[in-house]
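Two quick folds needed for the group meeting slides. Do the first one here.
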Amino acid sequence: MNEMPTLSEPNATPGSAVKTAPQAADQPAGRAPTLLEQLQKPMSIAVIVLAVLLAAQSWSTSKQIRNLREEVAKRLQKGDVSNAETGVLARNVQEGTKELQIKVGALENRQSETQSQQLALEQLYNDLSKNRDEWALTEIEQVLSTASQQLQLAGNVPGALIALQNADRSLSRSDKPQFITIRRAIGRDMEKLKALPSVDSTGVALRLDAVIAQIDALPMLSDETPALPAAPEKPGKAKPVRDASGKLVGPPAPEPLLQKVRDGFNTWSGDMWADVRQLIRIRRVDTPEALMLSPTQSYFLRENVKLRLLNARMALLSRNETAFRNDLIAAQDALAKYFDTRAKSTQTAQALLRQVQGSNLAIEMPTLSDSLTAVRNYKAKS
């Protein structure tokens, strides 16, 4: 049989060849290593160390980068949240700003309306103040004009003073310096009125009224009735005799006959003389016609005297001294001519008329022209 041929040593494995190569290389042991071989050993170690360091550095750097990325991611996430919150706040602020702008606009509109209303109110106040001053001056002018007329026609000095005082008081309520001129003029007119002599017109009028009220009760010469003399005491009967205690002691003593005759004659003569005195009156009368007045004439005479006194009263109020004097004289003449001047009531009436006649009405009344002129000039300027 055919046998397989065995492999020779040259056909050995590569490993054995490799092994033999170092052995062959190592064979020259006695040969010294070269410089390159000496340098290659530290360099390989340095390379290994450097590689380790680079690997460590790379691992550390990658770790730091990974941490940095995580930190950046976290911060970016926080930044996104903050941005979202900031956006929400910004939108809220914008909305709040819009609302504030709307409110500010509304407030500005209200402020403008308020200013317009304030200006309108100020204008209205100025108009009202001006109109009030005009009304006050118009009223003062009317009052002063009426007081001036009363002063000239009736001599009403107290009324004119009151009108001037009221006008000055009304002007004093306003602090306007323009009214000082008017108040000065009013003060001058007040001084003029206060310097006038006082005339008691009211008292004189009251005395005239008192005399007028007495006219109907004054006795006249035509209706005078003489007073009857006192009747002589007739002799009475003899009174009974009484003691100190009032007890009757005895009957009255009888009167003698001669005494009875004498008493009878005295009674008859007294009655006769009384009748004669009623039939015959002796009196001095300067106006005999005063005794011949009928009741109708007496009535009209009394009314005429009262009318004279009323006319005198009207003349007193109107400051007409001539008419006042004439009416008083006519009334006094009527009293002295037709009335019984011996009566107490007539004498009282005549005394009152003499007091009234002594009043002085001849006083020149001043005018209120200064005050009226000042008021009218101010109204003309305004």
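Then this one, please, same format:
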Amino acid sequence: MQHSIIGSSEQTRRLQQLIDSIAPADVSVLVTGESGCGKELVAQAIHDRSERRYRPFIAVNCGAIPADLLESQLFGHKKGAFTGAIADHRGKLQEADTGTLFLDEIGDMPLSMQVKLLRVLQERNVTPIGSNQLIDIDIRVVAATHRNLEDEIAAGRFRADLFYRLNVLPVQVLPLRDRRSEIPELIEHFAEGLKSVDRPITLAPGLSNLLQAYDWPGNVRELSNTVHRLSVLYPGQRLDLHNVDATMLPPGALEGLSELPTPIEDDGVDAFEGLIEAEQGDSASDVAAQKFLQDSVGASETSRVDDEFESIVMLAQGYEDFRAQGQSLKGMLSEIEQDLIARALEETGGNVSRCAKLLKMQRTTLIERIKKYELRVA
């Protein structure tokens, strides 16, 4: 099974070339990078492109197994070797024979185990717990860690000799924030790959830009989880800032809203749609919005809005060609939206939450529009 590394950036292209170069070399590899950036995927790609591709790929998370069980998991044991050893057990080192052993989070391995692992890598044989028989093994080791092992060596938590044994071919995987251009294609990949959802989600420019501006401290793993969450909650929908619950986005993602470029698509439409809903609705909020349009904007302005809306309807029906008169529909909608937001801010004393409620807009969308039009909030 081939494991694909998704991404068309220059950084990922160089990573792919490096994997192609080192895969045939049957020596140890040390993959470094932050948690969630795809180190295991890189290890699998190295295995898939090596001469051992049809042999076992055995993964062990050294940080997830308790220290007193790790030796048994790696080396195996004989029946009766300790309390609870009711049968012989082949360890991961034997399971990986002729294939690749992936030691994830090697930086979390206890020092006592590091000594024993070093011996195995040097001698290429293993002795199960409770046995005195040496068993020859033929394995390639790929290790990974999110820690700086040189700092760990200086602190006395990692053996220098084991580091040199593992770090024959070093591979660094960059965090997602250093390859932001890949975020849209990763989102598309994760959305289309969900078998539990019939139709994949798509993102409008506003939300796409927001997610690209976010730093993703959990890297690709966090992005994948976010896409999965949105796909389950909004299956098959086109998502933007105005129709996604902000609590379903990563914590802190909205903090980068001020840095976003203004999306070309949907300019001036959201608030105008809110106006149309207010004209048609009969709820308390609808009435309040309609009263605001009449009282705050004024009769002449309300009439102008009505006339322009009627012109839009006429355009849709084919009665009038705006372009012939030198007018832009998008520009007109933006002008109306800016005017309504400015007057609503004045009416609410600059209270963004009240203003958003009055205009029937999502607060995040309103903040985006305020920044776009460079409106002042008291």
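Slide caption for protein two: Confidence is low (pLDDT under 50) at residues 261-285, 312-321.
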